[in-house]
Amino acid sequence: MIFYTKTKPLSGTNYSEIYPKALALYKQIASRTKRRPYIRSTYFKKEKIFLDYFWLHIRTKNPRDRARRLRQYPCALELIKLNRTEPESKKNPNKSSEILHRFAGINGNKEEFFVQIKENKKNGQKYFMSLFPKD
To answer: Residues 6 or more apart from 21 whose CB is under 8 A from it?
Structure first.
């Protein structure tokens, strides 16, 4: 199933325009806690989804790909918070102690995107890992 978000993607044509807007959203969430920033997910019964892993992951991409992904950041946050649809889940082929959950969404501009959440089987923690538009 696909989750329809009301949020529109961030405006901007390049990384230097989009990054400050996405970082401002992240800092707003991070200011609510003294520890690791998180949002609660409806699908995972209001469990915490930690956001810091995504920012480490996005730094490994080139600036053009970063802009493409960060444009969908507010849509991804809405999907994580409000989504109740079943994700596509599978074991991580690189680490057997992890499960990868992939959620599909359509933003306010009718563009499809995917959000990937990594779940650690040992302690049950979940991390917002990746975000990418369908191309």
So the answer is: 10, 11, 12
Closest by Cα among 18, 30, 98 to 58: 18
Using alpha carbons only, give the angle 16, 22, 24 rounded to the nearest 5 degrees. Answer: 105
Q: Please spell the DSSP secondary structure of 61-106, one letter per residue.
A: S-HHHHHHHHTTHHHHHHHHHH--SPPEEEE-SS-TTEEEEEEEEE
Tabulate helix, strand, coil % of the chain (nearest 5). Answer: 30, 30, 40
Tell me the pLDDT tens digit for each residue of 47-80: 999 999 999 999 999 999 999 999 999 999 999 9
